[in-house]
Amino acid sequence: MMKRREFLQKAGMGVAVGVSVARIESLNAPKGLTLAEQLGFRKEDRLLILHADDLGMCHAVNVASIKGLTEGVVTCGSVMVPCPWFPEIAAWARNNPDADLGLHLTLNSEWQYYRWRPVSPWDKVKGLIDREGFMWRDVASVRENAKAEEVEMELRAQIERALEFGMKPTHIDTHMGTCFSRPDFFEVYVRLGAEYGILPMLPAPNPQILAMAKQLGIDYQPIAVRLKQQGFVFIDNLVTGGSGNTLEERRKSYYEIIRNLPSGVSEIILHLSTDDPEIRAITGAWQYRYHEFLIFTDRETRKFIESEGIKLIGYRHLAELWRRQTRK
Predict the structure, then answer these.
(1) Do 288 and 271 contact (CB within 8 A), yes or no?
(2) What is the residue-wise DSSP string for 247-289?
């Protein structure tokens, strides 16, 4: 089973060993301006988005992510609408309208026993459902069985449900990278973002991403150029996670990643959780989520980031820039 982080690694968007930073060439340079400059910073500034994935998946993830957003250095996150604990995080979002939360558009249910189903009427999206009646566990099964019309119906239903619950999403991204796995899925993903006025997360192309996209039948370079011309914003550098098994090994890995960030806008993808019986029953990799929770709610991490001169931003900054550019 392949989480978003694993899919992004396979897509060349990061390497989960040592310093896992993909240096992505920037498309964000109208009139010679870098993305950092468009956001009001200096060209040489290092800007960092610390993004928590999987909010709404379970209570332990919600508790940890909220603490990361309110007491730690986490700047934003994205919510899984089909999951059982979505109502809890949606209620928190309503009560905290300044929170920078997007939607983690979901087409997979990857865990062994803890599963979820589509938001859409199940008889209308049969290609999204496995033999057990849940969403497919892996990306390949969605790619092989789902129709683009079903994907659009489900993603639209997730966006509508979030809006009905009072959320005001700042962005959308894709759980396990599934929306990037077929050209027609990707077209739906970008089009729905534009239709609803919600910024889609887009990585700027590097050779590895272009090669992986080509294998999936996506000619990403001209697509990226066209989207840039339309005002879409691309993340300069994407980090898919640290390495190590112990807390201190992972802390050292993340600090090394942060220390070596290049200029421009970088995003680190995080998965936070408290340590309790719920998350231990869901995944055998619970300790990595717990480690990330401890690291990114630690005051020493904030001090370290400040000592490196790195400026923390969220997707709200990018969304505001996108809206300005698309109004031109």
Answers:
(1) yes
(2) HHHHHHHHHHHHHT--SEEEEEEE-----SHHHHHH-TTHHHH
Q: Are 265 and 310 in contact (CB under 8 A)?
A: no
CA distance readout (Å), 23 to 29, 84, 112, 152, 308 = 16, 36, 35, 31, 19
| Amino acid found at 247 | L
Angle, helices 220-229/207-215, rounded to nearest 10 degrees:
110
Question: Does domain 4-326 correspond to CATH entry 3.40.1280.10?
Answer: no
Q: Retrieve residue 299's tokens.
A: 């005051």
Residue 306's nearest CA partner among 232, 253, 255 is: 255
Question: Between the CA of residue 100 and those of 135, 151, 207, 316, what are the distances in Å?
Answer: 27, 25, 31, 6
Which amino acid is present at 138?
A: D
> Are 20 and 258 in contact, with CB atoms under 8 Å apart?
no
Residue pLDDT tens, the chain, 328 long: 334 444 344 433 332 322 333 333 445 555 679 999 999 999 999 999 999 999 999 999 999 999 999 999 999 999 999 999 999 999 999 999 999 999 999 999 999 999 999 999 999 999 999 999 999 999 999 999 999 999 999 999 999 999 999 999 999 999 999 999 999 999 999 999 999 999 999 988 877 677 777 887 788 899 889 998 888 999 999 888 899 999 999 999 999 999 999 999 999 999 999 999 999 999 999 999 999 999 999 999 999 999 999 999 999 999 999 999 887 5
Domain boundaries, the chain: 4-326
- With beta carbons less than 8 A apart as the criterion, state whether 255 and 296 touch: no
Which residues neighbour 81 within 8 Å (Cβ) at sequence distance 6 or greater? 56, 103, 106, 119, 158, 159, 161, 162
